[in-house]
């Protein structure tokens, strides 16, 4: 992996013939397919978007309202309009591709109110969509800026199909709705749409920094989506000192759903890495004391059924070493789990009585397995912020490679929301503090992914999804969930879904399970076949991937070879089959090797795709992990067929996927 970010080419040119006039202007993408029109009416700013000459976003309002600053929403005058052309290719520290194209045309639109206060609205038009942001340069008019409302609208033309989760100020762990847009009242982003003419749109945000998270509302169901920012307890949306730089509001546009996935637009809208030496940032496959607690065979709390004991940790480290997995996470290593929910319960620095931090970290190091710390907060930010530096330092001093953080529960201070500005800033402080101690971060119950891993490449992965854990103690995640995530949640960035459940029906441990959560655990299972669990390693991108099941459930299973072999970061990504909520095939290259993941929803299907991505001059060996004739989603989802054969670029593979099934391929050149 290229660990240094190098800008291969950077061309910044000012187009002399800029906007037509400051009051009205047009700007196009480099390939001319995407066009944005800006206009000022009665001093209020508006935009419209066209794709291949079709209006995809109709006239939509722009602007902000403030508690303590007036006249920046209407009756403004346009002062200037300047354009910039940007052409760049950059190399991320890790990613879905080793080169990312960042080509756009930008317009900076400067508006001014009566009191000569300026607001700039920047538009960037890419071949893959449009982004815009608000900037209020230094103001001397008030002591602090209090945003009361963001006026941004997305006036979606027609009544497209849409995939989204409901708006929620505290959780993204929801099932996706596939509905006509007019039936959606509100949504968290990304919200993805397919128009009747086959054009795809996805609304999200990029570079969510020192601002509140954005949800969208569709009041009245007329598809005039409006931004609704997550508030502070007093109703203010965003509080700033003396200037404002909003996140980018993004509208990805594509003719093929797969192009939404391969677009670098969200990352591009973030700043280059602030970490100079990134040698310590690495892809990870990690095992952990984790699934046992979720299925109810072990507990987080120290005592009789405690999972994270020194002995059990060593067992996991041995398993990791044997199979070449380079990370180990012991959840429940520390004190506080018996006081969950109380303020001050967790201190993130005191090990449980039966967990010897010195010994476990020594053992991990001796065996070449990276130690991953766990900072559960239970939502108690007041305590975590007090402990933050000591807790990161403790991990660093014990040679840890990273930390998983957790925020399940209501936030202390009460009244704050997981997705409001207070928490956005907290999550960022944690990433920066981790960087100071050379630690990578995997955040659970996080703020949404908006591409900040370009700037902070130690922000490896996050949950913010209804992940595997839900299969352990609830009705779980239906098969269609996996065919929807790549086109929705994953557009923001990596997902720590925690794949790799081999005992699909959770039957091996039936006798040891104790109910600890809402649903009837005897009904719980992973809603996939084993082949689809493998497919998830390729389909659901994450530079850290968990190998989630208990070692005893995986040991000796020949399918484990795929998990051993599959990389977690990539040089190239292609999406030959992209049918949102139905089926998806993702093809990824690492060096000369190719890995493919394919999966289906509740329907069995035959999946056919060409291997034309392979080099013409070479022969390859493909190892296929697929649903077999004996695989039955209900009774024997763990059955898998594994076969190898020789292939070339001229081959087309036809693979049967059973209902809830999938396949995974490893393709290596034959020398
Ligand atoms: C929820 C997280 O998503 C899960 O991974 C973790 O095990 C529990 N909280 C406990 O921290
Ligand atoms: Ca969670």
Structure in words:
- A hairpin with a 2-residue loop joins strand 10 and strand 11.
- The strands form 5 sheets. The chain has a 19-stranded antiparallel beta sheet that branches. Strands 28-27-26-25-24-23-29 form a 7-stranded parallel beta sheet.
- The protein has 3 domains: 251 residues, Beta-galactosidase, Chain A, domain 5, CATH 2.70.98.10; 182 residues, TIM Barrel, CATH 3.20.20.70; 196 residues, Aldolase class I (TIM Barrel), CATH 3.20.20.70.
- Helix 4 packs parallel to helix 5 and helix 6 runs parallel beside helix 7.
- It has 12 helices and 37 strands.
- Helices cover 15% and strands 34% of the residues.
- The chain has 671 residues and is of the alpha+beta class.
- Calcium ion binds next to loops.
- The site of 1-deoxynojirimycin (NOJ) has 8 residues, from loops.
């Amino acid at each position: 992996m290229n660990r240094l970010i190098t800008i291969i080419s950077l061309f910044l040119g000012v187009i002399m013939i800029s906007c037509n006039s400051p009051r009205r202007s047009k700007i196009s993408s480099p390939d001319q397919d995407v066009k944005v029109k800006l206009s000022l009416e009665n001093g209020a700013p508006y935009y419209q978007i066209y794709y291949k000459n079709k209006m995809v976003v109709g006239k939509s309002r722009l602007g902000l309202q403030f508690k303590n600053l007036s006249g920046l929403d209407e009756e403004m005058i346009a002062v200037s309009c300047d354009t910039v052309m940007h052409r760049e290719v950059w190399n991320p520290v890790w990613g879905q591709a080793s080169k990312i194209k960042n080509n756009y045309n930008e317009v900076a639109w400067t508006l001014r109110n009566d009191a000569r206060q300026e607001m700039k609205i920047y538009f960037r038009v890419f071949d893959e969509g449009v982004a815009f942001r608000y900037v209020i340069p230094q103001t001397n008019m008030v002591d602090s800026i209090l945003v009361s409302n963001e006026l941004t609208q997305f006036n979606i033309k027609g009544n497209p199909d849409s995939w989204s989760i409901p708006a929620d100020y505290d959780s993204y762990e929801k099932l996706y709705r596939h509905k006509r847009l007019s039936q959606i009242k509100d949504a968290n982003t990304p919200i993805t749409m397919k128009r009747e003419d086959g054009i795809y749109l996805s609304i999200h945000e990029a570079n969510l920094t020192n601002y509140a998270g954005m949800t969208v509302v569709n009041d009245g169901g007329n598809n005039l989506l409006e931004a609704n920012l997550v508030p502070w307890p007093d109703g203010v949306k965003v509080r700033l000192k003396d200037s404002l730089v909003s996140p980018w509001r993004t509208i990805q546009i594509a003719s093929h759903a797969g192009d939404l996935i391969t677009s670098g637009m969200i990352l591009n809208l973030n700043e280059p890495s602030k970490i100079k030496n990134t040698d310590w940032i690495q892809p990870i496959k990690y095992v952990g004391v984790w699934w046992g607690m979720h299925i109810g065979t072990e507990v987080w709390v120290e005592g009789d059924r405690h999972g994270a004991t020194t002995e059990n940790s060593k067992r996991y480290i041995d398993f990791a070493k044997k199979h070449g997995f380079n990370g180990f996470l012991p959840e429940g290593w520390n004190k506080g789990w018996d006081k969950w929910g109380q303020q001050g319960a967790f201190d993130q620095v005191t090990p449980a009585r039966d967990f010897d931090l010195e010994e476990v970290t020594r053992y991990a190091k001796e065996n070449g397995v990276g130690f991953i710390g766990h900072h559960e907060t239970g939502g108690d930010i007041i305590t975590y912020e007090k402990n933050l530096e000591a807790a990161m330092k403790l991990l660093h001093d014990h040679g840890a490679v990273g930390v998983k953080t957790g925020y399940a529960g209501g936030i202390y201070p009460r009244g704050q929301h997981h997705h409001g500005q207070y928490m956005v800033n907290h999550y960022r402080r944690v990433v920066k503090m981790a960087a100071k101690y050379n630690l990578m971060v995997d955040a659970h119950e996080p703020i949404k992914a908006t591409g900040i891993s370009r700037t902070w490449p130690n922000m490896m992965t996050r949950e913010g999804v209804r992940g595997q854990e839900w299969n352990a103690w609830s009705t779980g995640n239906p098969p269609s969930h996996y065919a929807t995530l790549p086109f929705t949640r994953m557009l923001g960035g990596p997902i720590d879904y925690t794949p790799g459940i081999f005992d699909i029906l959770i039957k091996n441990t039936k006798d040891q399970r104790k109910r600890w959560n809402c649903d009837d655990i005897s009904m719980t299972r992973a809603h996939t076949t084993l082949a689809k669990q493998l497919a998830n390693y390729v389909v659901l991108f994450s530079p850290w991937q968990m190998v989630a099941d208990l070692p005893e459930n995986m040991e000796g299973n020949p399918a484990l070879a795929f998990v051993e072999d599959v990389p977690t970061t990539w040089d190239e990504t292609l999406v030959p089959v992209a049918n949102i909520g139905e089926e998806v095939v993702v093809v990824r290259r690492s060096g000369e090797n190719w890995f493919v993941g394919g999966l289906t929803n509740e329907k069995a299907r035959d999946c056919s795709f060409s291997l034309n991505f392979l080099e013409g001059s070479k022969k390859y060996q493909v190892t296929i992990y697929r649903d077999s004739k004996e695989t039955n989603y209900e009774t024997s989802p763990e059955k898998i067929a594994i076969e190898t054969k020789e292939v070339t670029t001229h081959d087309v593979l036809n693979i049967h996927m059973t209902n809830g099934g999938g396949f995974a391929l490893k393709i290596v050149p034959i020398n």
